UniProtKB/TrEMBL annotation:
Source superkingdom: Eukaryota
Lineage start: Eukaryota, Metazoa, Chordata, Craniata, Vertebrata
Keywords: Growth factor, Secreted, Signal
GO cellular component: extracellular region
Location (main, coarse): secreted
Gene3D superfamilies on file: 2.80.10.50
Protein name, UniProt field: Fibroblast growth factor
Secretion signal span: 1-29
Similarity comment text for this entry: Belongs to the heparin-binding growth factors family.
Length: 210
């Protein structure tokens, strides 16, 4: 076998190896980030605000407070930042990021925040609507998720239809930046000491005493 023939065979083998590597990389599936709002499977976690204007006298964001009460607030706040985690396809848990309380629902439909996750009380079925809003039902009880009117704990006069919630990106307004150190004044180029290295001038030498 001549040198040219051996080199040709080696070149052909190298081309086959490179083609196999490229084919293998093309066949590998790239994972979808868990935070994608389009993915409704276990392990997905996303931070959002739940905003509703459905049958409410004022626009409101669902808020889970430190004492366990669940109310609606007109403005976004740290207590209204929620973590939605998929438990299984179409079913989620809702956690208050600041208060570490799970959103739960009692047999009468009352919403409350619990430090302990109860699968029967704190699991909600999420239904995505075409207009971008979502509706939620208790997976166990089948009751719709809805804020009580006027933030009242009583639900006697509350409508029982499902409320629409619009998930909003979970980004709180950035706090004001602290004031930095003021920039030094520009040097006085007309002075005999423009960089202030000698210090303030004195009318007489400090070695003399009066």
């Amino acid at each position: 076998m001549g040198w040219d023939e051996a080199r040709s065979q080696l070149l052909g083998l190298w081309v086959l190896v490179m083609l196999a590597v490229l084919l293998l990389e093309a066949c590998q599936a790239h994972p979808i980030p868990d935070s994608s709002p389009l993915l409704q499977f276990g392990g997905q976690v996303r931070q959002q605000f739940l905003y509703t204007d459905d049958a409410q006298e004022t626009e409101a964001h669902l808020e889970i407070r430190g004492d366990g009460t669940v109310v609606g607030t007109a403005r976004q706040s740290p207590e209204s930042l929620l973590e939605l985690k998929a438990l299984k396809p179409g079913v989620i848990q809702i956690l208050g990021v600041k208060t570490s309380r799970f959103l739960c629902q009692g047999p009468d439909g009352t919403l409350y925040g619990s430090l302990r996750f109860d699968p029967e009380a704190c699991s909600f079925r999420e239904e995505l609507l075409e207009d971008g809003y979502n509706i939620y039902h208790s997976e166990t009880l089948g009751l719709p998720l809805r804020l009580a009117p006027n933030n009242s704990p009583s639900r006697d006069s509350a409508p029982w239809g499902p409320a629409r919630f619009l998930p909003l990106p979970g980004l709180l307004p950035a706090p004001p930046e602290p004031q930095g150190i003021q920039a030094p004044e520009p040097p006085d180029v007309g002075s005999s000491d423009p960089l202030s290295m000698v210090g303030p001038s004195q009318s007489r030498s400090p070695s003399y005493t009066s």
